[in-house]
Amino acid sequence: RNTESPNPFRPALQYLVDSTKPQTNHRHSNSSGSLDSDNEGARSRMASKSSTELRPHSIPLISISRSPSPFQRRHSGSNPASETDDEDWVDQPSLSRRSLLPQDGYRMTGWKRWLYQGGFGQWLFTTQPGWSVFVGTMVLWLGGCQIGLIIMNRIIFSSGYLKENYTSHTKLMVIIAGVYKFPYPLTTTLIEMLITHFFILLSAYITRWFSPWLVSAGVSSMVAPSRPLPNQSSAPGFRGQQKKLGTLGLIARWTSSFSGGIAGGGLFEFDLAVVKQVLPVAVIFVGKVSLSNISFAYAQLPIYILARIGMIPLSLILSAFLNGASHSVTTLSSTLCATLTLLVATTRANIRVTWESIVAGVFSSLFVALYPVQIQRTYKSLVASLVPQGELIGTFPSSNAPVDYSGSKEEARAYWRLLHYTSLLSIMIFTPIVFLSGEIGNISRNCYFLDVFFHWLMVLCGGLGSWAVFFCTIALTRATSPLTATFLFIPRAAFLLPIMSGWKMPAYSWIGIGMCWASCAWFMMGRRREGRPLERLR
Predict the structure, then answer these.
(1) Which of 29, 269, 432, 515 has the most Cβ atoms closer than 10 angstroms to its Cβ?
(2) Computed from CA positions of residues 380, 386, 387, 393, in that sequence, does the dihedral angle turn out positive or negative?
(3) Burial of 476 (0-12, 13-18, 19+ CB in 10 A)
(4) Is residue 425 scored above 90 in pLDDT?
């Protein structure tokens, strides 16, 4: 038998058996061997065949499967001498996400590593510079939007203020702005709440539209959930599948519990279990916003700041007793120094004071200090209710998905639920208060400028600022602490006082403003030393 030229029509298994035999350097001679030798050779071949069939490495080269593989074949040229092809069969991502996710083993460089493979999220949430940039951006955003909202509300309550301070150099702005007054803080607050809810809904849909890029960049916690929880969606029965819902039924299903909305449960998602958790936050938010606008509408800015200056000590006390937070000596010293120096800067003589502004401002300081504390408590309870008992919070991505350090899906759903239910419940609570106050009747009888375009433009800008403040306050409280969100009142007041006063203040006020800014820098340096990049995720 010639072993060097095998028969190509032999079975694949026998081909493997012969390939494992040691090759000899000499050729067997054709002899007329006996019958016993032929039988011994046949028996040895059968024995070797039966022994090799039991070996684990004997794999046929011909596939007997006729069904196509559900995965795509990836030919690897890095290891051509491999004996098996098992490592070439991988679970590829779907077609919609395949263009954004690179293949395994490929590491991008340059600007692409920020947009792919979770590079931006990894830098933002796992490094000290990235975390400082993240917190600093939210602080600047929240502080700037609060300043803009205060200016917009001042223009809405009295457009004559705009004429006296900003439109004296041009007659066109005087004609556009007018000299009217809209002294209805409760109605203004309700309109801004409605605009805020609309922009929250719009921001949720924007994050869903950009979800492929956000996921590949490693910040998937920004994406709003698009579907309700599996246990909340009730599957229809046999008769429900045969029944047609109709147009109104489809709209009701879409707005109630089908999909979309802010938190994934529709436009009017309303879960009683979640309502019980978020209701205290909504009540505190209504008291905070309504009392603050009442105090701001009937007082000048120094009196408005002076009436609410006690919110920083209240925030220290409430966060320590309700959340169990321990404040360092640096934090206590910097916050108290900033409060006292701001008190010195806002003290004025010969200023008209109304009792409505003082009472509303003092009570609003309690709600302002309590609001971030209750946000943190409610957020933690929402996250705990979303995690099944016995499981851990976290994401376990596959080998093809980018690593995400921004947070888990439970944290993202809890954040958007807190936004949705706080805004919706606040509107439901505050609407009867506006009608009972009698402002609607006074507006219908006394307001003659409701058709002025500039007035509604300022209301729209005020609603946009209200959305930015509402959106970022919860995000900053979740990322840092309630004290950080409340302390922004100090630099905001120190920035607005000289501007609103026309840069005409006594010497002691300027000294107080300078010491207030120094105390704010002291607070920032202390919080930066005490903070950790992964404090929120831990």
Answers:
(1) 269
(2) negative
(3) buried
(4) yes
Percentage helix, strand, coil for the chain under 3-state DSSP, each rounded to 5: 65, 0, 35
**Confidence class for position 494, pLDDT limits 50, 70, 90:** very high
**DSSP 3-state of 195:** helix
Q: Which of 114-123, 244-253, 419-428, 520-529 has the lowest mean pLDDT?
A: 244-253
Kindly tell me the number of DSSP H helices and DSSP E strands found in the chain: 23, 0
AA identity, residue 444? S
Whether residue 502 contacts residue 165, with contact meaning beta carbons closer than 8 Å, is answered with yes
Share of the chain above pLDDT 90, in %: 35
3-state secondary structure of 52: helix
Q: Find out whether 476 and 142 touch, Cβ atoms under 8 Å.
A: yes
Alpha-carbon distance values, 251 to 51, 137, 225, 333, 420 (Å): 69, 39, 20, 56, 19
Which tokens in the block code for residue 491? 């630099």
Distance CA 291, CA 299 (A): 12
Q: Is the pLDDT of residue 136 over 60?
A: yes
Q: What spatial distance separates the first Cα and last Cα of the chain, rounded to whole Å?
A: 73
Cα(200)–Cα(254) distance, integer angstroms: 18
